[in-house]
Each structure stands twice: as structure tokens, then as C-alpha cells.
Amino acid sequence: MIIILLYFFLLIIILFPLGIGTSKLLSIKVKLPLDIVLLGLVTITIFSSLWMFFLPLAGLWSFSLIFLSTVVFFYNRAEVYEQLKISKNNILKLSFLNKLTLLFTILAIVYCTSLPAYVIDNESYYIQTIKWLDKYGLVKGLANLHVYLAQQSGFHILEAALNFDSVYDRFNDLSAFYLLIGVVWRVTLMITIF
Fold it and tell me: Which of 119, 155, 176, 178 could form a disulfide linkage to 113, CB 3.0–4.6 angstroms apart?
């Protein structure tokens, strides 16, 4: 569970500056801090899709992504700190019962993520696709080898981009991260409405 929490924390550290950089670059007004995280996910999906035409998403991609996020952070650190302050204030506005419920929900998501996966899948194309994208990138004619290798989406590309195999081989919990972001986003949306 601790490794999954560290992975989620690493994702936030990487996604937050990229989301702020994208929002400034495209002049997008962001109301909630978690919208910045979602913008960061979209940015990584686009950049990793372009990257995979030329190189695989192995170790060099991970280090390039961390470097890019660090550069964008230092360029936009005032906005990052401002959005983090807004996030802190939103959490402090919660009542004790809501804070406890949110904490319990986060721990439940992380606990369920740490359990072994039970996936009813037809020959596990999902895992094969992510591993193929991670090791080889986009390959012309890949569907000729096996039809399951042709079934990919932006989420598969994002999973391959953010699994960080070069750091630890079990970082592949992006769907739980989306669930966590959705729960926290809903709570912060309720705070801004009421």
C-alpha cells in the first residue's frame, strides 16, 4: 500500500506542473486544482503518442518526462504553489466527518489496488499491449502478428507511459489513480458549489 501511495504521489508531482504549463500555454481557465491533474494526463497522452512513433516508452521516456516536469515546475512554480494552497484550503474547509470519509475512501482505494488483480480477460490483451508499447512503441503491421496487439487506445498509451518499469515493475495502477482523482474531484466540487 505504501508503494502505491508513493506512486500516486509521484504522479501528482509529475502531472501538476505539466497541467499548469498546458493550461497557461493554451490559455485554459482552470477552476479546480484536480482539473490541472487531468490536463497533465491529457498532455502526457499526447506527448507519449508522438514519442512512440520514434522510440519505445522504456527508461528514456521516464527520465525525459520527469525532466520536462521539473523544467515546467521551475518555470511556473508560483502558479504551482498557488494551486497547492487552493487545494489545502479546500481540504481545510471540510468538516471532520467529511475529512474522515475522504481519508477512509482513499485508504480503501489504495488497499483494493494493492490486492492481486482478478481480471476476466480474453488472453490478457490489455497487459500485452501495454508491454509491447513500453518495449517497442508503435510498430507498423503489429496487428498482423496477433489481433489483440492492435487493440489499443489512449488509455493504453497512458498506462504504458506512466507505468515506470525502469523504476519499479509493479507501477501499473492508473485506473485506481483515476478513481482517486474522481472521488477527490467530486468532494472539492461540492465544496466550491456549497
Answer: 176
For residue 80, give every residue at least 6 positions away whose Cβ sits within 8 Å of its Cβ, in sequence order, or none. Answer: 16, 17, 20, 73
What residue type is assigned to position 91 of the chain? I
CA distance 176 to 113: 7
Question: What pTM was estimated for this model as a whole?
Answer: 0.81
Return d(Cα 32, Cα 104) in angstroms, integer.
22
Longest dimension (CA), the chain: 57
Amino acid letter, 131: K
C-alpha gyration radius of the chain: 18
Q: What is the DSSP letter of 143?
A: G
Sorted by sequence, the CB contacts under 8 Å of residue 186 that are 6+ apart come out as none
Among candidates 160, 22, 130, 133, which has minimal Cα distance to 79? 22
pLDDT 10s digits, 109-124: 888 877 776 666 555 5
